[in-house]
Fold:
Amino acid sequence: MSFVQRSLSFQFQLGTGSFGDSGGSNSTTISNVRASVRIEKNGVPAMNRASIRIWGLTASKMNQLSRIGLVPTVIRNNTVTITAGDSNGNMSLAFAGGIQDAWPDASNAPEVSLNVVAFTGMLGQMKPIAPSAYPGSTDVADIMQDLAGKMGYTLENNGVKVQLSSPYLPGTARMQALAAAEAADIYVVFDDDNGVMSILPKNGARKGTAPVLDPTNGTLIGYPSYRGQGQIGLQCLYNPSIRFMGNVAVQNSVIGGANGTWRVTNLAHNLESQIPDGAWFSEIIGNKPLAQANA
Structure:
């Protein structure tokens, strides 16, 4: 495995309009900086979270960006997009979400950082829409297709075939989708990074090729750990193709029971750039859905 210089880039965008959802040209991109990011994806009802620290910014730049989060009672579509990769230009999307807080941290001066906390789905959680009513027996996939469109998502159906009887869904679009998923006894995943709302059976996983984690090529770091309740803990080299509620495949581990396909039920990425011995890895908790475990 060759050595490469890791790189993180951040694009900040301030929206316009009553909820900030009309876009806008007020944006800035920060790259080639010392930075640290932790991205957590734990599933609904929680929202994906990014905790960001960026060093080396001017005071004026930090003051400009810190205004984003100074009024906690006002929710606007002010966003941060994080791309991660290497100095060779191999960058890919790691996170995209709405900014909850942003502030300069001078507690370790002269090592002053801009700290940012962002979540996915903030606007969909807060922006009101009209209640949705579907008379008669209705395919939950059709309901989710409708709600996904209202939130700007593309629907990804991973084999859900459930009927609901005359559902009435109040609240925001996200609340309506969560209520429909609970009534249908299915999972819903808000994949804001890719603009996808995914639905899947409780014993299923998201479609797609399972990334391979193998200690012989360095993609699997250390040893798998048992987490109880049939769950496994994994640490691996950061791979943007690992998806929450998707599958990963473990190969060639000396812990024989760990080899095989696992569904990702918790996912966190720890990424650092321009920090000696900086982190560039993912933490996974996985399980085997019942249909797979009993096969």
